[in-house]
């Protein structure tokens, strides 16, 4: 044995020694550095991972960890965006339960692997849901859609594809944005910059700041846009402002990457919430879209979503899809079947689809009425300040403007 390994001079030497011996199937006695058989003690020193420091909890999901630990009977979790009933309980949509029953009773269904790109029927229906039934890009086969692990997985696959194949590695994200965005994009190999979005003075959109920042972005840069119900501000551009953003982005060749985690949750109407994305598709330009069914179908834990890339021609779309497969295969091989089957069962059946839209609208309406009640309660108590932003903002989130 190498003598240096037998008598390490510093703690890092010792760590390397322990690692080498562990890999060799032997271990040192901690007192006299003698060789012993595999360790039986629970001491940290015996672990090749003893240098690993405890990482921080995720700022959003960490609130759920703290919430679960808290014994208070009147606790509320205002962290993660998950819909709750009047009783404060998670909601499984009736239409989802119906779809699951159909699937369970269908003896022809099997549990084979899906293709790398997922369930074909789900992909088609997802593209149609966002881009619209008569979308020329779909009819001309210019859209490639791949099933991914909910919104997060769709963003990650799209970002890795861009990092490998797109001319620009810079992505502009709104300030503020969902806390996971910078981490997803950085780890995928993109370089993250921000554009102004929220104005604390008005608790609304800083449209001028947004336009200035996108105007000075380098040509071809990627821009992350929340399709609707911006997280965390609840502030969305108006349709006129969207149109100005679209013109500006197209004139500078900026690549739109839409993140749609809340279709139907903003207005209660799936088509109205898809409008900003459809405006960009209608101009014939290219874009990426990450779709999630976590919130609008309440399929949070099923991890079901889709990445679509709208291209200029069918041929480009086919080549793009072949490269997406090369991104996905070594990442998770192919996606899970259950969530995709639920979504497809609902989207392809007129009755189930209609039932879904009614349940979705009921969730959106209840969120709107909760905002109104909170606003009125603050006013009734004479709470100092202007709380009108609570009813002006939309979707699951409110930026209260209070400083902790
Ligand atoms: N994009 C945005 C803007 C989101 O708000 C979310 C969901 N956020 O809430 C859950 C969380 O914080 O983990 C997503 C994307 C991704 O959602 P999912 O991956 O659950 O579909």
UniProtKB/TrEMBL annotation:
Reaction(s) catalysed by this chain, per the record, are:
L-aspartate + 2-oxoglutarate = oxaloacetate + L-glutamate
Matching InterPro entries: Aminotransferase_I/II_large, Asp_trans, NHTrfase_class1_PyrdxlP-BS, PyrdxlP-dep_Trfase, PyrdxlP-dep_Trfase_major, PyrdxlP-dep_Trfase_small
What does the record note on quaternary structure? Homodimer.
| Record EC number | 2.6.1.1
Cofactors, names only: pyridoxal 5'-phosphate
Q: What is this protein called?
A: Aspartate aminotransferase
On whether Transferase is a keyword of this UniProt record, the answer is: yes
- Gene3D superfamilies given for it? Aspartate Aminotransferase, domain 1, Type I PLP-dependent aspartate aminotransferase-like (Major domain)
The record's annotation in PROSITE patterns points to:
AA_TRANSFER_CLASS_1
Q: Other remarks? A: In eukaryotes there are cytoplasmic, mitochondrial and chloroplastic isozymes.
Which GO molecular function terms does the record list? L-aspartate:2-oxoglutarate aminotransferase activity; pyridoxal phosphate binding
For this protein, the record's NCBIfam families field holds: PRK09257.1
Q: Output the Pfam families linked to this UniProt entry.
A: Aminotran_1_2
* Annotated keywords: Aminotransferase, Pyridoxal phosphate, Transferase
* Top EC group: transferase
